[in-house]
Amino acid sequence: MRLQTPLVLRRLGLPDVTGHVPLLGALAVDALGSGVFLPFSILFFTVTTPLSLAEVGLGLSVAAGIALPAGPLLGTLVDRSGAWRVLLAGNLLQALGVASYLVVDTFGGLVVAAVAVALGSQAFWAAYSPLVTQISAPGERERWYGLLGALRNAGFGLGGLLSGIGLAAGGTAGYQGVAAVNAASFLLAALLLLLDRSHARPAATTGGSADTGAGWRSVLSDRPYLALTVVNIAFATNSFALTVVLPVYAVARLDLPPWLPGVGLTLNCLLIALTQGPVVQALIGRARVRALQASSALSAAFAVIMLLAAAVPPMAGVVVVLAAVAVFTLGELIESPVLAALASEAAPDALRGRYLALNQASWNISNTLAPALLTALLAVGIWPICVALIGLAAVAALGITAVSTRLPAARQRIGFTPDPLHATTHLASPDDSCT
Question: For a FRET experiment, which of 7, 50, 298, 337 has its CA 20 to 30 Å from that of 387?
Fold first, then answer.
């Protein structure tokens, strides 16, 4: 059964956002503020504090490590208190942490403030997908994730542009202004959340196992979902190709102009902001597993095209690299909303917070391992990094194919609601050893 949405929105690949414009505004403002500050966050501390670059890097890493174990606890909190409240708390905590950056002048102060920001960020991501799932209907979730992804990319892009202009004109005061704008953006996002009707709806939980010690045992015994989480590590690690691999590969390995990575990242951001909706619309009716296989093939094609860039003259290499970015972005346009919707819909309502916290752990693992792994391969040479990216894409494609045999949500057609007469859930299968 196809979900009925307004015809114009459907043609644009957009969901019906009636009643949730404040939520869209909150997420857009959040992304704008983050786009203003994140590209210059390390420079901020080296300019405005007496700390060295090594001390700043160490302090941020220590803070991230301290906050890391909070993921499972936040998943439980989402199930018990509701995603809207956790998202609101995450914005307020990030506002407090970034505002504290303005008075940091010691290593200890940096760690304390950065822990607050890291915890707030984890709370945001713990609540983000459960909230989207709560406010959207089955069959419309790829549209929602696509729209929100486009808004976030537009916000990051515009924020980065505005901060660059501000820093060029403001010196140290400019850095402090950028941090202040970011803190204010989190407060504004929190105010907009208060205007949204999501908090007026009941939480997705229905009691029962969501409020017992058996909750996490049920999650960890769900082998098909555990397999999806493991496969997602390959998808997540490959997603770093643009931010980690491209700058070093293009400039240090191919000796291409230093402005090329920035142009490539801007192109990526613009393409996502402008074309995410039409891409989602083009996916309607296709099985999720097929879409993710296609996105993996595009990731592999990106690595092959990057190899070709090493075999042509520098001027042609610039064009080839930008073509590779476009191919990578198309894969991202397919993968991002489909993976998010799959992870959300494969989880039962009462434990969705915990399930998605487990899924988020795969991203945290990639965030930890990917930069070191990919840069080490880059240090060896061109062929190792490209072969590794192709291998990751193959693992992702083969893995999602295998997972789809045990996970009905992976075989679900995009834009269609499950047929209640034929829908099955992997949680009901005794062969999966789930409780």
Answer: 337
